[in-house]
Amino acid sequence: MNRFVVEPAQMAGDSFPVPAVIAHQVARVLRLRDGDEVMLLDGAGSEARCRLVGGGTMLEVIERAPSGGEPRHRLTIWQALLKGDGLERVVQQGTELGVASFRLMTTERVVAREISQRRMERLRAIARESTEQSERGIVPSVEAPAPFEGALEPGAVLLFERADDSHPGLGQLEPPLSVIIGPEGGFTANEVAAAERAGVALAGLGPRILRAESVAIAAAAVILSRSGDFA
Question: Is residue 231 part of a domain?
Answer without folding.
Answer: no
